[in-house]
Amino acid sequence: MSASRTRRLAPDRAADAARLRGTVLYVHGLWQTGAESFLLRRRLAAQGWRLRVLPYSSLGERPEVVARRCAREAKRLAAGTDKPVHLLGHSLGGLILHRVFDEGLLEPDRFSGDFCRVVFLGSPVAGTRSAQALAAWRFGRRMLGLAGAAELLDGRSREWRHAADLGIIAGNWPTGLGRLLTRFDGENDGTVAVAETRLPGARDHRVLRVNHTGMLIAPEVAREIAHFLEHGRFS
Q1: pLDDT tier at 209 (50, 70, 90 boundaries)?
Q2: Please, which residues have CB within 8 angstroms of residue 106's CB and are 6 or more apart in sequence?
Q3: What own/partner pairs with CB < 8 Å and gap ≥ 24 does 9-18 have?
Q4: In terms of DSSP H, where are the helices of 47-194?
Q5: Burial, 137: exposed, middle or buried (Cβ in 10 Å; 0-12, 13-18, 19+)?
Q6: How far is the CA of 87 from the CAs of 1, 146, 165, in angstroms?
Q7: pLDDT tens across 135-159, in order?
Q8: CA 182 – CA 234 distance, rounded (Å)
């Protein structure tokens, strides 16, 4: 690379660093890899947020193992910076993040306030009928994997009792695999019912016209995420 080309790149990198508001650690859902967040990554980047993916196997890893690795990665991203490190979980990923906080794996005096906010996307924190219906099939529980079976079939009552603000986005466009497995009584995103996403203690809850997977590519979801990360509430 020529010296002139190097000189042109250096100011651009400095400008990008100056525009960076902080980092978002993304935890994906069941049967996903994190690659599905590519459009969300671009949309958040346009608003100053750098998205990083926590890779894990929903089929082959237990949720407590993933939660510990998530906490280590969040601490690594937070080391030596005063810029925020926020946490974002889609579907099962939100339940992993709930476990991270419930098990006290992150310091509440550090991961709270303006430095750390949490957003769940379509996470069935109140249990999910579609996963229960799938588990009733002959090989259904195996299809849910170690993490999915442990978290999605857990009937415990959850709440949010942590210092970090939590915002939840649910979808009400009822198209998805879940409708082939069970009948929903109310609004749903085709996989998870809106009622299944409500969690006592959450700071804010927003329902958008998206389905379960489509919320990862919908521009309005990216806008709401960015708004919550900055203000602690949805627009």
Answers
A1: very high
A2: 71, 74, 75, 100, 116
A3: none
A4: 63-78, 92-102, 129-135, 140-152, 178-181
A5: exposed
A6: 37, 22, 10
A7: 788 787 888 899 988 998 887 889 9
A8: 31
The structural domains of the chain, with segments of one domain joined by +, span 21-110+146-231
Question: Rounded mean pLDDT of the chain?
Answer: 90
pLDDT at residue 23, rounded to an integer: 98
- Look-up: residue for tokens 């810029």? 83
Q: Give the Cα separation of 192 and 210 in Å (integer).
A: 12
Of the options 3.50.50.60, 3.40.50.2300, 3.40.50.1820, 1.10.287.990, the CATH number for the domain spanning 21-110+146-231: 3.40.50.1820
pLDDT digits (tens, 9 = 90+) for 70-118: 999 999 999 989 999 999 999 999 999 999 999 999 999 999 999 999 9
Q: How many residues does the chain have?
A: 235
Token pair for residue 46? 């346009």
211, two tokens: 């389905």
**Helix (H/G/I), strand (E/B), else coil: 207:** strand
